[in-house]
Specification:
By secondary structure, the chain is an alpha/beta fold. About 35% of the residues lie in helices and about 15% in strands.
C-alpha cells in the first residue's frame, strides 16, 4: 500500500499554498537540491570532461529512462531520455510515417496540445503528407485504411478527457496504422500500460507529474518489435551506432538508442533522477485510486458551492486523467484571484480554469481549501478587480 503521507513529505511545498498546478509544473522534490549540488561540486567541478565516463553521464539517458519505463507500462531498455518533447514528437511521428511509405495521412484531434499539431504540420509540409484533425470523440470513426499515423495525446490538456489507448491502438492496427501516444498529462498521473495496449511509439515530458523541474528532458519509447526498424528523420550524433568513430555517414544504433539526438542535459537529468526516487515505493494502481478520490471530491465540492461554473471534464472518472477543468466567461480573472489567495491552478483559453491533482502530494485538505476559496471568490465577485484582468505572458 502506497504511503501518500510519506510521498507528500518528500516535496518542498511552500507554506500557505494549495498547489493544484502539477499538470503544468511539479513542485521541487526535497532531494533534488542536494543531488544536483552534489553533481555540480563532486562531478562537474572535480571530474571535468572525465565525468562522461567516471560519473556515467553518457549512460544517464538509458538509466533514467528505465526508471520512467516502470511508470508507463514499459520494460527495461525501452525508454531513452533527452531533448524536448517537441523533438521527441517529431522523431516518433517521422519514424512512423517512414514505416508506412504508401500512406500520407497523419490523424490527430482538436484536443491535442497545439505544439504537437505544429510539429505534425511542419513534418507534413516537408514530406508531402496531410495532417487531418477531427474532434476528440470522432477519432475512432476516422481511423481508416489511408492513414499512416495516429498521433494522440492520451489526456486532453484542457478538458482532462482520456482516450482509450488500448481500443484506439487495436483499431489502428486493424487498419495498418501506427500509433504515437503523447503521455505529457499521463505519465505519473494515470495507470499507463504501453505494452499491454501494444502501442507503437510514446513520448512525454517530465516536468509535470514526474516533477523533474522546469525544462527537464523528455522521453521516448518504441515498442520492442519496432525498435530496430524505426528510423527517425532527425538523426543525431548520440543516436549513431558508434558516435566516437566520427563516421561521416549515419548508421543508427540498435534499439531505443537510435532515438537519442543531442548531448544529454546532465544537470537537468540529475534533478529528474532525484525526483524519480519518490516513485520507488508507489504502486500505480494506488495512485490511480487516489487520483479518482481527489478529483471526485473536488467536482462534487465545486458544484455544490460554485454553481456558476460549468464542468468541462468528463464526469465518469474512467474517462478522465488526473485533472479537473471548469468553464466561466471570466475564467482568467477568477484564476488570478485564486492564486492571490494561495490556491494555484492555471487558465487555458478561452475560458477554462484548470486544476491538476497529483496524488504524491495533494490530499483532501487541498481539495477542501480550494473548494472553499473558490466559492468565496465567486460569492463576493472578488475576482472583478483590475489587476486580475491584466494578462501575464504565461497563463
Amino acid at each position: 500500500m502506497t504511503d501518500f503521507n510519506a510521498t507528500r513529505r518528500a516535496f518542498h511545498l511552500p507554506a500557505g499554498i494549495t498547489y493544484l498546478d502539477g499538470n503544468s509544473l511539479g513542485p521541487m522534490p526535497i532531494g533534488a537540491e542536494q543531488r544536483v549540488a552534489q553533481m555540480m561540486v563532486g562531478e562537474w567541478s572535480e571530474m571535468l570532461i572525465t565525468g562522461w565516463n567516471r560519473a556515467g553521464w553518457y549512460h544517464q539517458p538509458r538509466k533514467v529512462g528505465d526508471r520512467v519505463a516502470r511508470l508507463i507500462g514499459a520494460g527495461p531498455g525501452q525508454v531513452v531520455m533527452g531533448d524536448t518533447l517537441s523533438i521527441k514528437v517529431f522523431q516518433a511521428v517521422s519514424a512512423a510515417r517512414v514505416m508506412r511509405p504508401d500512406r500520407r495521412v497523419i490523424l490527430s484531434d482538436s484536443g491535442n496540445f497545439p505544439s504537437d499539431l505544429y510539429v505534425a504540420q511542419g513534418l507534413a509540409r516537408a514530406v508531402g503528407a496531410e495532417l487531418r484533425v477531427v474532434a476528440p470523440e470522432e477519432v475512432e470513426a476516422n481511423i481508416t485504411d489511408d492513414l499512416a499515423v495516429l498521433m494522440i495525446t492520451e489526456v486532453d490538456y484542457r478538458t482532462g478527457r482520456r482516450h482509450d489507448m488500448k481500443a484506439l491502438t487495436r483499431k489502428a492496427h486493424e487498419h495498418g496504422v501506427l500509433t504515437v501516444w503523447d503521455l505529457a498529462h499521463s505519465a505519473g498521473a494515470v495507470d499507463v500500460d504501453l505494452l499491454g495496449a501494444d502501442a507503437d511509439f510514446a513520448v512525454g515530458c517530465t516536468y509535470k507529474y514526474l516533477n523533474g523541474g522546469p525544462g527537464s528532458p523528455a522521453f521516448i519509447w518504441t515498442n520492442p518489435r519496432l525498435a530496430d526498424e524505426a528510423e527517425p528523420i532527425l538523426q543525431g550524433w548520440m543516436g549513431h551506432a558508434a558516435p566516437f568513430a566520427f563516421d561521416l555517414e549515419y548508421h543508427p544504433a540498435k534499439g531505443i538508442e537510435r532515438m537519442r539526438v543531442g548531448t544529454p542535459p546532465v544537470i537537468a537529468m540529475t534533478g529528474l533522477d532525484a525526483a524519480l526516487d519518490v516513485w520507488d515505493g508507489v504502486d500505480m494502481a494506488d495512485l490511480r485510486a487516489r487520483s479518482i478520490e481527489l478529483t471526485e471530491a473536488f467536482i462534487h465540492g465545486v458544484e455544490a458551492t460554485s454553481p456558476d461554473l460549468i464542468l468541462n471534464t468528463p464526469r465518469d472518472p474512467a474517462q478522465r486523467g488526473s485533472q479537473v477543468s471548469f468553464r466561466h466567461p471570466q475564467g482568467y480573472a477568477i484564476m488570478q484571484a485564486l492564486i492571490a489567495e494561495g490556491v494555484i491552478g492555471d487558465f487555458r483559453a478561452p475560458d477554462v480554469l484548470r486544476f491538476g491533482f497529483a496524488p504524491l502530494y495533494n490530499d483532501r485538505d487541498d481539495v477542501s481549501q480550494a473548494v472553499e476559496v473558490l466559492g468565496e471568490i465567486l460569492r463576493k465577485s472578488s475576482w472583478d478587480r483590475p489587476e486580475f484582468h491584466q494578462k501575464s505572458a504565461v497563463t
